[in-house]
Amino acid sequence: MDAFILYFKMGFYHVLDFSAYDHILFLIVLAVVFNFKQLRKVGWLVTLFTIGHSITLGLSAFEFISVNTKLIEFLIPVTILITGCINVFRAKKAASGKESINLVFALFFGLIHGLGFSTYFKMMVSKGEDKIMPLLEFALGIEVSQIIIVFGILVLGTLLDFFTRVSKRDWILVASSIVIGISLQIMLERIYW
């Protein structure tokens, strides 16, 4: 039980670590296009990101892949930037509820985000024989923390709509633009060449 708590907490705080807020920024731009009427898509969004993240963690833990950490640390804000820009250019369509491209981004960009933590995770599980259970426990922690963040984003969007009548399109544009600005700054800090 102690091992479960250890890896669950590690996954949970990996996403909710405010000093490493790139996951939170990515979740903002992924989730801002959705609302509570689209809970099925939101559930898929969270799960697809966890699946992508876990695939690369698992491949790294079993030493099927090795990564250039500096490259991955640079690519993470690139994924945030791309998702934010797509939101801005497709805000009207996304506001109508017909946009699902962020589900694709959640899976494929989740692969890159998983690589960002793979070196540390590999060191954590290399001491033990069993790598599957720690990976699943870590993934569960990630899933729960993402649900909390995405729920908060949906609540904020709903409150803005209800109290200020900010349109869904404007909410997508403003939130995505703020995240784009922050991700550009992170990219500049992480240039590796």
Outline of the structure:
By secondary structure, the chain is mainly α.
Describe this structure in words.
The chain has 193 residues and is mostly helical. The protein has one domain (2-189). 80% of the residues lie in helices and 0% in strands. Helix 2 (22-31) runs parallel beside helix 4 (69-89), helix 4 runs antiparallel to helix 6 and helix 4 runs antiparallel to helix 8 (168-189). The chain starts with a helix and ends with a helix.
Structural category is mainly alpha
Shape: globular
Unreliable stretches: none
**Elements, N to C (H/E):** HHHHHHHH
What's the gyration radius in Å?
A: 17 Å
Approximate strand percentage: under 5%
Overall pLDDT: 90
Number of strands: 0
How many independent structural domains? 1
Number of helices: 8
What's the helical proportion of residues? over 70%
Largest sheet: none
**N- to C-terminal distance:** 44 Å
Topology, pairings included?
Elements: H1 2-16, H2 22-31, H3 39-61, H4 69-89, H5 91-95, H6 101-125, H7 132-164, H8 168-189
Helix pairs in contact: 1-7, 2-4, 2-6, 2-7, 2-8, 3-6, 3-7, 4-6, 4-8
What structural keywords apply?
193 residues, 80% helix, globular, 8 helices, mainly alpha
